[in-house]
Model the fold of this input.
Amino acid sequence: MAIKKITCKTALHYHDREFASNYDLNIYRRCGHRCIYCFAQYSHKYLDTDQFFDDIFVKTNVTEILHADFSKRSWNSDPVNICGVTDGYQPIEAEYCLMPKIIETFIRHKNPMIITTKSTLLLRDLDLLEKLNKIAGVSVQVSVSAMDELIREKNEPL
Ligand code: SF4
Done:
C-alpha cells in the first residue's frame, strides 16, 4: 500500500442527492477496506492512479480546513456525513488518527454528525462521539454485508 499525504482547500463537499445530509466530509481519498462491491471507485477516476484500494491519500490539514469551513458566517450547522465515498475508519485511520481531531472540531462548533462505517475502530472514539451526541447529535450507520462470516470475508477482505 502507498500512502500519499495531500492538503485540501475545502473540507465540506455539497451535493444535492436525497440523503440524510447534503454535506460530505471525506478525510481520505480512496479506501483500504477492499470491498469487492465497492461503489465508490468511480468517484475517484480523476486521480492519477487506478489503485483504488492500494494508494490511499491522507488529507493532513483537513481538521484546520474544517474548522475554517465551520467558522464561516454562511455555515448553518447542517448535519455532515463522514465520509460519503470512503470510510473514515478504514485501516490506516488506526495509524493517522484523524477522526478524533475531526470529532473534537464538531464538538467545538456543536455541529451534528452522521457516520457510515463498517469498522469497529469507531469504538476507539466512543467517548468523543458520546460527548458530541449530547450537545449536537450523532447518527452512526453500520454497514453489514452478510451474516455469514465466510461470505463476509470474501466480500470485505479487511
Ligand atoms: S468501505 Fe465503502 S468505500 Fe471502502 S472499499 Fe468498502 S464500499 Fe468502498
Q: What stands out?
A: The chain is about 25% helix and 20% strand. Residues 10-27+61-155 form one domain. The pocket of iron/sulfur cluster is lined by residues 31, 33-35, 38-40, 86-87, 118 (CB under 6 Å).
